[in-house]
Amino acid sequence: MDNFQHPVPGKLRTAIVICCYSDKRWDILNKAIEAAARQVPAADEIVVVVDHNPALALRLRARRFETPVRIVENIHPPGLSGARNTGISVSRGEVILFLDDDAVSDQDLLATLVRQLEDPSVLGAVSAIRPLWETDRPSWFPDEFLWTLGCTYRGLHPGPVRNLIGASMCIRREVFDHTGGFDSGLGRTAKALPLGCEETELCIRAAKALPYGRFVFEPSSGSDHAIPADRATWKYFLHRCWAEGLSKASLSLIAGSGEALASEKTYMTRTLPQGVMRGFADLLLGQPSGLLRAVALGAGLAATAAGFALGRTRAALTRPFSSVPARALEPVE
């Protein structure tokens, strides 16, 4: 903490890091890169990290972009955490904006988040993340569970937050210098189970190492996060809730139940009950979808709790915590 260097007034050097892994997202990936290139003012560098897919890396290197874009391959273990750590290593920005490969950012996104980081006490900031539905939004899908799609959910308010959401978040490089990178044992990989919590773990770790700092939610700008048809289903919804429970179980062993579940307690005791009440109120007003949303809220909570219960037992037996050490994030030429 004593060695932390507060930024001097003036322009912060910025980097945008976009991680990708699948050719199936080619079209939306290109839109995400193009949107990153159109930021005003422009980022000092844009880095696209390809997660162990040489063919995709070759295809991207063959594409001509309007502004310089550096294409690199993940040098860390497969998965989103490893890819982000590679982006940290190869970029030079004092602040790094991480974008998902299926998130198309507003033109002022970088400027809006960097403005927050001009306050020395702000370690990182996250924007609004809006769902961009490929098909019609399901009438049963509750706003309170938009986090299952990597989007801003009902109950998240502007100002200080415990953790950032990965699809559109900006973090000071000094955070990684002091705490190491994203934990490769957490987060998404190309496997079917959509695990997460790597951002939450990092933010909790950073808050311990830099206790004067904070993370904030700034919704005045944002990104449109593509939601394909196969994620607008009950199957994916419950699967994602289950996976979140498993992830939270691992996180609770790493960070302790108090910090790992502090926000979730408020969410369960306030946000979800209010959502159920809204659902039944809509039903009384002649909107059957209100009942469906109330059912979805209960089902989502049950699936998450079940995943947590199982994951807590499994994680306690099989997974000791080992975060990515700071030396793994030394600059790579």
UniProtKB/TrEMBL annotation:
Keywords: Glycosyltransferase, Membrane, Transferase, Transmembrane, Transmembrane helix
Keyword Transmembrane helix applies: yes
Parts of the chain that traverse the membrane: 290-310
Domain of life of the source: Bacteria
UniProt domain Glycosyltransferase 2-like: residue ranges: 16-178
Family that this chain belongs to: Belongs to the glycosyltransferase 2 family.
Name recorded for this polypeptide: Glycosyltransferase family 2 protein
Organism name: Rhizobium changzhiense
